[in-house]
Give the backbone structure.
Amino acid sequence: MALGRPEATSHADIEQAAFRIFAQRGFEATTLDAIAESVGVGRRTLFRYYPSKNDIPWGQFDSTLEHFRETLDSMPPEIPLHQAVHRGILAFNSFPEDAQPPHLERMRLILQTPALKAHSAIRFTQWRQVIADFVASRTATAPHNALPQVVGHVSLALALTAYEQWLMRPDDSLHHLIDESMDLLTDYLHQ
């Protein structure tokens, strides 16, 4: 029997309510009080789930990053480094079709809301670091060395390009667009 305070809500309930209100009022005009009221909890309860309104669109990003790290670390060593990173990015970007809020809606908010840009830079740095740590481990170098950092930055650029294309072409597959971004880079490097 678990002791302690019973769970008042869930991450999913908060995210769904927040995205509903974001769609109605816009991100900037949505208050934490409005989200809390919609979920039926107090503002302080929200802070047990998310440290700020800016964190809500990112969902449970810390656990997602941990899963990303585990996915990369589980890649067999015989898979070439660039393929292992690419496969890891594809796995990271696999979401259920019925996810609520839909991943496309989540990324539209993150990428197109000026108030989220600074916060996004922090999250993108954390994401790149997972790749840099993996590359460093595979190449027996330090994560701050040039190769791990370059791979992290390039991988983020490829992923963001795919996301931007996805926002313009929502009927296309995100995985296809990530592959397309990688193919474009590969073609460019071989010109």
Remarks:
- Confidence is low (pLDDT under 50) at residues 1-6.
- The radius of gyration is 18 Å.
- Residues 117-139 form the longest helix (23 residues).
